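Tokens in:
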């Protein structure tokens, strides 16, 4: 497993090259990027902050849980902090598995659980002001314990 919090550009190509193995039938990638608008407001940039030590511990626990819960072979979970411009990647999740269904399910569960539980905060700066974002509603059907 590769779990990191970085202050620089996420190494997407490097992570993909490292995670692939002969036993894999699928590698699912979620590359969360900064978009130019949120709920109809023009976004200028985002700032990410975190309780770094706690966030890293929780991300490591989530990656390990995903391997067990979804029976996938490997997980990479990386998040960037600091100021991010439009089009830059803020989070990278890569899941390697023998089967695509497990890879997709684990990838979706990881991003939704990370956004809900890990102490990483996003400040969105718009043309007309700024807010600390609460995130999108968390889908109940994929909450921890829902697939058991």
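Residues out:
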């Amino acid at each position: 497993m590769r779990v990191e919090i970085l202050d620089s550009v996420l190494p997407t190509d490097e992570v993909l090259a490292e995670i692939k193995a002969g036993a894999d039938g699928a590698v699912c990638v979620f590359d969360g990027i900064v978009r130019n608008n949120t709920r109809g407001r023009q976004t200028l940039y985002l700032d990410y902050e975190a309780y770094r030590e706690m966030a890293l511990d929780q991300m490591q626990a989530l990656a390990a849980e995903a391997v067990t819960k979804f029976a996938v072979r490997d997980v990479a979970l990386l998040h960037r902090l600091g100021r991010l411009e439009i089009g830059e990647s803020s989070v990278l999740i890569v899941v390697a598995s023998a089967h695509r269904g497990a890879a997709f399910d684990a990838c979706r569960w990881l991003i939704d659980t990370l956004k809900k539980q890990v102490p990483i905060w996003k400040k969105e700066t718009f043309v007309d002001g700024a807010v600390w974002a609460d995130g999108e509603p968390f889908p109940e059907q994929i909450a921890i314990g829902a697939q058991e």
